[in-house]
């Protein structure tokens, strides 16, 4: 069974075609600058060179047609015809409270995704566009929606209700939703497999650390708390997002700087985080380079980020009543030994001990998992590359296979 995984953005469409018989990626690519000048489709078939197709891509329907054409192309294609695609799995950012798992897409599901667009105005409309484009090109192919928020729907009420008037939750759905759920689910399952233990008996903290970052407490295979909240702005300081701050700062800044809602929203989402602290960059590689050259604010940004991770690990160990494993994943989690070491430093009382040599040895091992804790560490510390596309494909097969 071959599954096409689609992740549609407002002007992009990322894809992977996965053969679920052995879970190998047959091809992957990205249609960029859809509806904009200089659009391009980058297509990489397994074992072959990347192909770039430069032509005007007026909309997502054309992008999907180009993806199919690339997949069946006699030179760089990987299948004979469209009929080999058994199903399409779509990443959808926000499912609200409606969906606690993945679902086969029908008219009612589409209506619910549209209704949740108010909660994810930058993402859900783009996801809807991708689904509709695929349906127009492949009307008879089953489609599945896999929600970033679904994994976190197992959180208890004390984890997701905010201490504001309860009517705000009842009227507007204001609560903690959490994001990166597909990634947190994938790496927690992978960690259990690497440990050789059932996930139903494990207490795991998963750290998805990238330009957007979140941490999740996974108890017995279920999310019981997560750092992102009503929006992805809450939690850790990130590349350009402020993370958790005193809410009064917002009103204070709006008054002092005479900011509009749009301006403060941009300030907190695009000008803050490690970029705002360092004044250098939102890219952690740039920050490390600057820190090595003696830039104190760049080093401060790195240390604040690592300190925040440490606080969440400790808090979630307390929330779960123990800890068996910490998992680092995503761009920073997989590739930054300094952040991993600093985040675990001082947590020996929880049973966490990092092996510095193992930690450094993970550098350059892109796409490979490994243990970085010492042999006598009571808590396993793992680096596990995330694979959201494979998780989406698995969920799709489970529903339509």
From TrEMBL:
Pfam family, one: Acetate_kinase
Residues holding substrate: 91
Residues involved in Mg(2+) binding: 7, 388
Gene Ontology cellular-component annotations: cytoplasm
Top-rank lineage group of the source organism: Bacteria
PROSITE patterns hit by this protein: ACETATE_KINASE_1, ACETATE_KINASE_2
Sites marked Transition state stabilizer: 180, 241
Protein residues bound to ATP: 14, 208-212, 283-285, 331-335
Keywords of the record: ATP-binding, Cytoplasm, Kinase, Magnesium, Metal-binding, Nucleotide-binding, Transferase
Cofactor: Mg(2+); Mn(2+)
Biological pathway: Metabolic intermediate biosynthesis; acetyl-CoA biosynthesis; acetyl-CoA from acetate: step 1/2
UniProt keyword Acetylation, yes or no: no
UniProt GO BP: acetate metabolic process; acetyl-CoA biosynthetic process
Keyword flag Kinase: yes
Function: Catalyzes the formation of acetyl phosphate from acetate and ATP. Can also catalyze the reverse reaction.
Subunit (UniProt): Homodimer.
Family (UniProt): Belongs to the acetokinase family.
Name of the protein this chain belongs to: Acetate kinase
């Amino acid at each position: 069974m071959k599954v096409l995984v689609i992740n549609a953005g407002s002007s992009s469409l990322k894809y992977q075609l996965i053969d679920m018989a052995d879970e190998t990626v047959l091809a992957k690519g990205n249609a960029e600058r859809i509806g904009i000048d200089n659009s391009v489709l980058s297509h990489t078939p397994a074992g072959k060179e990347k192909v770039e197709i430069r032509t005007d891509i007026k909309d997502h329907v054309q992008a999907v047609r180009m993806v199919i054409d690339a997949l069946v192309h006699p030179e760089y294609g990987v299948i004979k015809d469209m009929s080999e695609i058994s199903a399409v799995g779509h990443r959808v950012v926000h499912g609200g409270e409606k969906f606690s798992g993945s679902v086969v897409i029908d008219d009612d599901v589409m209506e619910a995704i549209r209704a949740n667009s108010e909660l994810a105005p930058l993402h859900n409309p783009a996801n809807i566009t991708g689904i509709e484009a695929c349906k127009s090109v492949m009307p008879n192919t089953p489609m599945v929606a896999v929600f970033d928020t679904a994994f976190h729907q197992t959180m208890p009420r004390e984890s997701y209700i905010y201490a504001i008037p309860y009517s705000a939750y009842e009227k507007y759905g204001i609560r903690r939703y959490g994001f990166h759920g597909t990634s947190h689910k994938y790496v927690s399952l992978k960690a259990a497999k690497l440990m050789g233990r059932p996930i139903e008996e494990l207490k795991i903290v998963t750290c998805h650390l990238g330009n957007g970052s979140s941490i999740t407490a996974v108890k017995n295979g279920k999310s019981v708390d997560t750092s992102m909240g009503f929006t992805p702005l809450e939690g850790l300081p990130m590349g350009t997002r402020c993370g958790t701050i005193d809410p009064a700062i917002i009103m204070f800044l709006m008054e002092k700087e005479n900011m509009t809602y749009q301006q403060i929203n941009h300030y907190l989402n695009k000008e803050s985080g490690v970029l705002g602290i360092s004044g250098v960059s939102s890219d952690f590689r740039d920050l490390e380079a600057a820190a090595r050259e003696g830039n104190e604010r760049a080093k401060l940004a790195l240390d604040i980020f690592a300190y925040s991770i440490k606080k969440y690990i400790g808090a979630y160990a307390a929330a779960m009543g123990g800890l068996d494993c910490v998992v680092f994943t995503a761009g920073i989690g997989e590739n930054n030994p300094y952040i991993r070491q600093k985040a675990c430093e001082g947590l020996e009382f929880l049973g966490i001990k990092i092996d510095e040599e193992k930690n450094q040895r993970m550098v350059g091992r892109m796409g490979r998992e490994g243990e970085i804790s010492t042999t006598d560490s009571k808590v396993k510390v793992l680096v596990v590359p995330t694979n959201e596309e494979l998780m989406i494909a698995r969920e799709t097969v489970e529903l339509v296979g």
